[in-house]
Amino acid sequence: QVQLVQSGGGLVQAGGSLRLSCAASGRTFSSYTMGWFRQAPGKEREFVAAINWSFGSTYYAVSVKGRFTISRDNAKNTVYLQMNSLKPEDTAVYYCAADQDTTTWPPTRARAYDYWGQGTQVTVSS
Predict the structure, then answer these.
(1) 35 near 24, Cβ under 8 Å?
(2) Which of 9, 75, 93, 113 could make an SS bond with 97 (beta carbons 3.0 to 4.6 A apart)?
(3) Rounded to the nearest 5°, which phi and psi values hold at 76?
């Protein structure tokens, strides 16, 4: 059984920072791609960032590039999303996800991912 367990998130003022974590268990994720998505009320789930677990290659949505950083700790089987200079429009439920198929890079579509975390709320006040 594959599990992705998220932690972090919460309420922060505009300009502040938060870090999300996603701990993977049940499989060896050494060759997976890990991604972060977010979904605001009334909107579709959108891609935020992805990282190739083996090589560390990263890719970001234009809206977060330069403000968010995705990283991984292989020893802990954990992926992080460091979010700086947060804006009210970053408010959403954030999800981590794992993609077993690494032949497509970057995987920016939600349907490409096989496993999902439980989601965590991030609220940025103005």
Answers:
(1) no
(2) 113
(3) -100, 0
Tell me how crowded residue 24 is: count the other CB atoms within 10 A of its CB: 23
H or E segment to which residue 99 belongs: strand 92-99
Q: How many CB atoms lie within 10 A of CB 30?
A: 9
Residue 82's DSSP bridge partners are 19, 69
Angle, alpha carbons 81-96-114 (nearest 5°): 145
Distances (CA, A) of 80 to 15, 103, 125, 126: 19, 22, 22, 25
pLDDT in tens, 41-60: 999 999 999 998 777 899 99
Question: What would the mean pLDDT of 78-83 be, rounded to a whole number?
Answer: 96
CA–CA separation, 72 and 43 (whole Å): 28
Q: What is the spatial distance between Cα 30 and Cα 45, in angstroms, rounded to a whole number?
A: 26
